[in-house]
Amino acid sequence: MVHTKARVKRASARHPASNEPEARPLWYAPNAMIRTKAACEDAIRLADRIRSTDLGPVPDEQELFIGLHTAAYQASRPVNQRRLARSEREAWTERWEAIREFIVEQNLGLVYSMIGRFGSRHMDDDDLQSEAMFALSRAVDRFNPWRGYKFSTYACNVIARALMRRGKQETHYRRLFPVQHDLSFERPEGMPDFDAGLYVERLQRVLDGNLGELTDLETKILGHRFPPEEESRLTFQEIGEVIGLSKERVRQIQNIALIKLRGVLDLDPILQ
After folding, report:
1. Pair (120, 150) in one structural domain
2. pTM of the model
3. For residues 8 and 264, which has the higher predicted lDDT (pLDDT)?
């Protein structure tokens, strides 16, 4: 019994307890290349370039994804005194987010191309945009740059499958419910929707603390698109006229902001 307590005490000393929740490890494709010191230095320089105002030549696809996977690998390493400090892991996570967002922005054209080819006439433009954008973000997260094919090929397949799957679901739903109905009629009167309420509460926490690191422009566009009063909601065209951007650019910025918020909520331990 004494020996057991001693072992537990030594283990606790090596791995001190922390009240802070561990972040969910980021996915990366195992490859010896991302474990080298040179890869780390390249990823740091790449993230700094992306976050700076002077990007210079646009990095090629292979460079971007090697940097993304290197940052994910470094951010996923265990936190302890000998291997990786928490502050260092947070820095690597921020680099991963910057590179990931840049890749998404560089490939927005794939979203509109796939919507034009595989979009469902039963879905409105906003739903199609959201579905395709989330598919693009999943493609970025799961692309393996060492498989030998281009990201655009992989992403187009992911987006097309997502749109076709959603289109089939929408068609099936309309076949079952040909008359539009209100979901609130299905909930007993006076019974709150706890799941939705919790989600809204956690989302408000993210917005209040700007945990999604939204820019002022992204915050302003979301405020116009999702105001407290539904009747004051503006269209993409109206927002563009207010802030001096095209309708499509406003749509792109909104979708990028929503991806940021969804990424934070996906990591929220309360919603797991």
Report:
1. yes
2. 0.59
3. 264
